[in-house]
Design brief:
Strand content: 15-25%
Structural class: alpha/beta
Largest sheet: 7 strands, mixed
Helix content: 25-40%
Shape: globular
Number of helices: 13
Strand order of the largest sheet: 4-10-9-8-7-5-6
Radius of gyration: 22 Å
Length: 451
């Protein structure tokens, strides 16, 4: 599809948005949303005819890009056959989606509870863990994001929690491993792993193991910075959970469905959680869908005891049809393998080459189609290019970097002092190189802010 300019239509869309749409995470009078006219593959465009290479994958969910014809056709076909139906019934698209997901989850995570998105998946995973154990507390990492609903936002570690933190949600935060900005003064990954596990055990001891229902971790934290845990860390958490009877929950909402070059990031670490949350890439975000993959032991808790939770649109036929089509497309087109290969041969080497030439790049980290550049004022001290949670003038350096990306036709994922490189998992080699070239130019702007 070729973009064409229609500024008048764009102005009408923008006017209606500003008059009536209340946007998330925003001061409504300070935002200026781009009016989007269309999208296809790895690109989208506005009503002025400007086309952008999307290095955000929406919100890291268009894992097969925009408007894949086979998924669009599956949604259309399902809408013509059975557009909606209540969740208490057995439906072909719902059953098939659950089967295909269960085939790909690790271990015995073979029962699927469907939600409308990732936050609701986290809400229900925590509810299951509390009911299964009879314990109230949940432990989660400071560098994390788990969703915007009541429990999920309290479990979240980033600043979006602050205004919503009621202090009574039964959540305790701890430091996860992150060698580049280690809270444990580690000098090697092995030290970081050992010290992070010791810190977690100390937290459990002082909180009381008998009070802790679950530990929830993003397998590879996403919005917080794409920090791959050191070898042995997740296996160590699994062992701690087993020892204390704590439910181990892995949040794969962002890292799942090919994003890291595996169906699920847990495969990189050979760990099996008790519960796993998913959303986003399960159907490339074409129709809202999320869920919880449940182990046999926890599922058995509710064999004779009703599970006290449900959603009107749980396992919605259109969403599940989109999931079935997406998973089949990923299999047929080898999207997971492609994500691994593009990370190994293009994105990883290209980003590391940029780091060699740009003093604003402190660290490159990631895998598959899941990367981050940690931007700094000083490589020696690792001082972030902007302060933590900076806004306004304090965030000028990152704002200038983002504007430079967009000027060069790249839509960037910018969060605090980082830019995340998260294109569709089926991004082509030429598209990836086009994005790297745009990043190269924008990083020259960031370099101007280096001390």
């Amino acid at each position: 599809m070729t973009p064409h300019a229609d500024p008048q239509a764009g102005a009408a869309v923008k006017a209606a948005d500003r008059a009536h749409v209340f946007h998330s995470w925003s001061a409504q009078g300070l935002i200026d949303p781009l009016a989007v006219a269309g999208a296809e593959g790895s690109y989208f465009w506005d009503y002025d005819g400007n086309r952008y290479l999307d290095f955000t994958s929406g919100l890291v969910y268009t894992n097969i890009g925009y408007q894949h014809p086979k998924v669009v056709a599956a949604i259309q076909e399902q809408a013509g056959r059975l557009a909606t139906f209540a969740p208490a019934f057995a439906l072909e698209p719902r059953s098939e989606a659950a089967r295909l997901i269960a085939e790909r989850t690790p271990g015995d995570l073979d029962k699927i509870f469907f939600t409308n998105g990732g936050a609701e998946a986290v809400e229900n995973a925590v509810r299951m863990a509390r009911l299964h154990t009879g314990r109230p507390k949940v432990l989660s990492a400071y560098r994390s994001y788990h969703g915007g609903t009541a429990t999920a936002i309290n479990i979240t570690g980033d600043p979006r929690r602050w205004a919503n933190d009621n202090g009574t949600a039964g959540v305790v935060h701890f430091w996860g491993p992150f060698l580049y900005r280690s809270p444990f003064y580690s000098s090697t990954q092995a030290e970081e792993c050992e010290r992070a596990l010791t810190h977690l055990e100390d937290t459990i001891a002082f909180e009381g193991p008998q009070t802790i229902a679950a530990i929830i971790l993003e397998t590879i934290p996403g919005t917080a910075g794409i920090m791959t845990p050191p070898p042995g860390y997740l296996a160590g958490v699994r062992e701690i959970c087993d020892r204390y009877g704590i439910v181990f929950v892995l949040d794969e909402v962002m890292a799942g469905f090919g994003r890291t070059g595996k169906w699920f990031a847990a495969e990189h670490f050979d760990v099996v959680p008790d519960l796993m949350t998913f959303a986003k890439g399960v159907n490339s975000g074409y129709v809202p869908l999320g869920g919880v993959a449940i182990s046999a032991e926890i599922a058995a808790t509710f064999d004779k005891r009703p599970y006290p939770g449900g959603l009107t649109y749980s396992g919605h036929p259109l969403a599940c049809a989109a999931a079935v089509a997406t998973i089949r497309v990923m299999e047929e087109e080898k999207v997971v393998e492609h994500a691994a290969r593009i990370g190994e041969t293009v994105l990883g080497p290209g980003l590391r080459e940029l780091a060699e030439r740009h003093p604003s790049v402190g660290e490159v980290r990631g895998t598959g189609a899941f990367w981050a550049l940690d931007l700094v004022r000083d490589r020696e001290t690792r001082e972030p290019l902007v302060p933590y949670n900076a806004t306004g003038e304090a965030n000028a350096a990152m704002a200038a970097f983002g504007a430079a990306c967009r000027k060069n036709g790249l839509w960037p994922f910018v969060n605090m002092n980082r830019t995340h490189v998260v294109p569709p998992c089926n991004v082509t080699e030429s598209e990836a190189k086009e994005g790297l070239a745009a990043l190269d130019a924008a990083l020259s702007v960031a370099d101007e802010w280096v001390a």
